[in-house]
Amino acid sequence: MRKWWSPFKKVWKFIVLLFLILLTFSYGMFQGGFVSWFLFYSFLPFALYSFAFSFYPLKGIEVSRHIEKFNYNAGEPLRVKVTVKRRSFFPLFYLIIADQLDDNLINAQQKERAKVLILPGFKKEISFDYVIDKLPRGEHLFKGFTLKAGDLFGLIEKEISYPIENKLIVYPFFTDLLYRPFENPFDQGMTASRERVQRDTSMAVGIRDYQPGDRFSWINWKATAKRNEVMTKEFEQRQSHDVFIVMDCVPDKHFEAIVSFTASMQRAVLKKGASTGLLTVSEERSFFPLGGGEKQQQLLLFHLAKVKAKGSSSFDKVIETEGMFVQQTVSFLLVTGQLTKRLIEKASFLGQRKGKITLFVIKGERESPTSAELSLITMANARGVRVIMVHEGNFAAAFSEVNF
After folding, report:
1. Distance of alpha carbon 104 from alpha carbon 116, whole angstroms
2. What's phi and psi for 49, nearest 5 deg?
3. 237-259 burial, b if ≥16 CB within 10 A, otherwise e?
4. Which residue has the higher pLDDT, 27 or 173?
5. 11, 192, 254, 337: which has the fewest C-beta neighbours closer than 10 Å?
6. Interior CA angle at 19 toward 17 and 20, to 5°?
7. Residue whose C-alpha is closest to residue 339's, from 309, 366, 365, 315
8. What is the model's pTM?
9. pLDDT digits (tens, 9 = 90+) for 308-364
10. What CATH number was assigned to the domain covering residues 182-197+239-399?
11. CA end-to-end distance (rounded Å), the chain
12. How far apart are CA 5 and CA 3, in angstroms?
């Protein structure tokens, strides 16, 4: 209906303009005198401009958008320069230029707006800048431009759209972490190994004196009986420590922090020289097998830039139904924002088959664990599940010496 009425609306406004010219002229003819003719001649230039503007084509205007780069990290500022070029000196009373952004960019904080009103006059080239202070994570689309111009009376208005598209990828914010593979739990808490190795308990290569933290199953009873001292098995050391990360994608107020911590952690693991994989179940299931190097890091970061908090299955359900866990013989790191009893039960069951499971729970910067969460942490420790509270802005503490 609107498209059907649009051409008739333009004709109607043109008829109104001609009517006003004839009306003021008739007033001068019949009324006579200085005032009536002064009114006609004062109105005539604006009427003639409106008449001429009705034939001015906005299609002759060229619009371009300049962006310095197309890969950013979340939180970085973005400066966009828009340039408008015209072919003629025909004066324009005003020109409204709007850059059509996606919803996430529109809602982001802007110093200068992406929609401006300028007074071109006779200028053939016009440019302006606008700044988005903090880019949100994701893949963003610049759809095009909308230009709108008109006369002084608003009778003749023209609008045109230019489909000039640009895509911008904003990677999640990450911090530099010093990843240290976790070893066995002590009575005081849990420690992270500074070494870049992992024991292979399937092959004993010797014996040594017992050290605090050695597992009960490592004790060599025959050697202990002979020497009358507790001796433990010495295992072969492997130079790799493969890690598989599973990230919770259910809607959560800390979801951006969850993504940021996951990005920081996978980057730290790869920097350590180990291999890492990733599983997310959001709108669709995304599985990335173990890999290493720069290519794997870029692949995971690109996915984390686009992942959304639209998971329909709870995190414990994902762990329960994923057959992928059976095939992997690696250390599992689970990242979530919600600690539940059912999640601990599923992680404990997985740990019985795959070894120690580490569960990272993301909290706000000054958010303390509730009494219910403290009880769940105690239960998790009893079931062999390592739970670590990670606060926004202090991700490095996840791999500190002692985490309670």
Report:
1. 19
2. -65, -45
3. eeeebbbbbbbbbbebebbbbbb
4. 173
5. 11
6. 65
7. 315
8. 0.73
9. 999 888 898 988 887 666 556 678 899 999 999 999 998 888 877 666 788 999 998
10. 3.40.50.410
11. 66
12. 6
Euclidean distance between CA atoms 87 and 125, whole angstroms: 9
Q: Which two tokens stand for residue 56?
A: 């001015």
* 347 CB-near residues (< 8 Å, 6+ apart): 319, 334, 357, 359, 380, 385
Beta-carbon contacts of residue 335 (< 8 Å; ≥ 6 apart): 245, 246, 247, 248, 258, 261, 262, 265, 360, 362
Q: What is the three-class DSSP state of 123?
A: coil
* Cβ neighbours of 104 (radius 10 Å): 15
CA nearest 240: which of 197, 210, 290, 270?
197
User: Is 246 in contact with 319 (CB distance < 8 Å)?
Assistant: yes
Which 3 state secondary structure label does DSSP give 309?
coil
Q: How far is CA 208 from CA 199, 223, 367, in A?
A: 14, 9, 44
Q: Cα separation of 147 and 95, whole Å?
A: 7
Q: How far is CA 254 from CA 259, 266, 338, in A?
A: 9, 18, 9
Number of Cβ within 10 Å of residue 273's Cβ equals 12
Q: Which of residues 56 and 13 earns the better pLDDT score?
A: 56
What per-residue confidence (pLDDT) applies to 3?
54
58-171 CATH pick, 1.10.730.10, 2.60.40.10, 2.30.42.10, 2.130.10.10: 2.60.40.10
Nearest of 326, 327, 274, 280 to residue 300 by alpha carbon: 280
Helices first, then strands: H and E counts in the chain: 10, 19
Given a contact cutoff of 8 angstroms between Cβ atoms, the answer to whether 392 and 257 are in contact is yes
Residue whose C-alpha is closest to residue 341's, from 380, 388, 386, 389? 380
C-alpha to C-alpha distance for 359 and 399, rounded to whole angstroms: 12
